[in-house]
Amino acid sequence: MLAFQEFQHALAAHLRDPHHTRRPAGVPARRMAVYNELLFNNVCGFVDSCFPVCRQLLGESRWRRLCRTFYRDWPSHTPWFREIPREFVRYLQEAPIAQPLPRWLADLARYEWAELAVDVMDVTPPAHKPQGDLMQGRVVLNPARVDVASEWPVHRIGPAWQPRQIEPTFLVVFRDAEHQVQFSEINAVTARVLALLDEGRTGQEAFEQLAHEMAHPDPQALMGFGLQLLTSLREQGLVLGTQP
Amino acid sequence: MSCTLCCAQHSLTPPLYMAMNMALTPLNTAGLGFRRELIPALQQAVPPEIGFFEIAPENWAGMGGRSAHTLRAFTERHPFVCHGLSLSLGGPGALDETLLRRTRDFMRTHGITLFTEHLSWCADDSHLYDLLPIPMTEEAVRYTAERIARTQDILGMRIGVENASTYIAPPGAEMTEAEFVRAVVEQADCLLHLDVNNIYVNSCNFGFDPHAYLRQLPLERTCYVHVAGHYVEEDGLLVDTHGSDVIDPVWQLLSEAYAHIGHAVPTCLERDFNIPDLATLTQEVAQITRLQHAAFGEQATPQRRVA
């Protein structure tokens, strides 16, 4: 380490955890306080704006404590400010957090983040035939999409209601052709179909696989249902069409 | 030159910088920081006083959807400058070459040919997300200059490096701030991005003469200028918030800087908080233009827009 970097490491350590580390030698308390406030407020600004429901439900002091341990404990390597909320979600999902938190918080945070993520996602729709035969052709899904599978109905959580019991929930957050973010609740079967289609199957192949997985007594009956479902997903904008 | 996209599609005026490696540019316009809050008003009409916009690549590169569409509509019609925030030129962490390559691609896509960054640091092994002062030692000069040189290699152009606002003076300094800026800029052979508000803020917070400081900078290398407002705390400490109007002593420093620089430079008004309406901001942009005209004459201002 170069000599001048010792100061930088000491300053960084103190900025991340001002309550438990020593202020670097030679730095006046008043001036250090300016940086402590500026940096933490800056990160809180990005986090606060993405997670209004989580913030409201935790309450201000618990929320701020969580932001502090995020800034202290989670090494964010992204230089892109819009990805700070994604780092926050990863922190909730992956880091050991001492503070007691609602069991659904990480999933709720991911659901809130999905709106931002989908809004700015840098994807171009692949070439597709919008009116292609969805059963015979390989189905092209909307790539500007985040699937949220949770044990909790995170889309219904709010100040008036929080879940007490597990209730498996499948949500899709996606961007439509007009750049609007849409939210859709789907069932477990549709979620499985989307996953199968994501692997590059035709509609027919996907529903054959599904029939196999379900040990369905009448696979042909499932095909009729399949076409209906895919047509409806296309109308919603989740399915774009088929590969040319 | 590199403005292939916008010129090809719209036969517009050339980009802000005709040549990437020119320290001395004849252009003499006033610009404004491009902010989402201002977009609805700007979509109605861009005031003719605004000669260019500035954006942080960290806020706009690699985005799709509506934001990307909106930005593209502006970069096709108006010159833009990239002002980086996350590069951590003097930081102990590895130089983020992925960020640089994505910045380079972003600039190409939008026909942007000027990039500047702060003479500061913001990351060790991970990001702190704000600008911190570099200890002013000979070793830090060499280290930072090498990283700037590498940055210039990757971007394929000279960059401007900005004198930063700071609130602490890291111990062990071997030179003054102005000497540090000069040493880094000269060793890296880069350009100077002069921020006159930062000079004023630091001069008040550290008790030095801003005019003497200004004269010690390598002003002949100035490629770009910032002007902004700041906040005064109760105990008199100045904080570089970009949240208020520019004050008269800072306007005076800008005039003085123009006189010393001796060549016309694009100058941007930064406003990041308490953002007033576009008409109010435009008055401050127009004040930049008045000072540019007083210093360099009106003929230095090209007609920038076709529509």
Present the secondary structure layout.
The complex is a heterodimer of chains A (244) and B (307).
Chain A: H1 3-16, H2 29-50, H3 52-58, H4 60-73, H5 84-94, H6 105-120, E1 139-141, E2 145-150, E3 169-175, E4 181-186, H7 188-198, H8 203-214, H9 219-236, E5 239-242
Antiparallel strand pairs in A: 1-5, 2-3, 3-4
Helix pairs in contact in A: 2-4, 3-4, 5-6, 7-8, 8-9
Chain B: H1 4-10, E1 30-33, H2 39-44, E2 52-55, H3 57-60, H4 65-75, E3 80-83, H5 97-109, E4 115-118, E5 121-123, E6 127-132, H6 138-155, E7 160-162, H7 177-188, E8 191-195, H8 196-206, H9 210-216, E9 222-228, E10 231-232, E11 238-239, H10 248-261, E12 267-270, H11 278-296
Parallel strand pairs in B: 1-2, 1-12, 2-3, 3-4, 4-7, 7-8, 8-9, 9-12
Antiparallel strand pairs in B: 5-6, 10-11
Helix pairs in contact in B: 6-7, 9-10, 10-11
Question: What's the gist of this structure?
Answer:
With 244 residues, chain A is mainly alpha-helical. Helices cover 51% and strands 11% of the residues of chain A. Chain A is elongated.
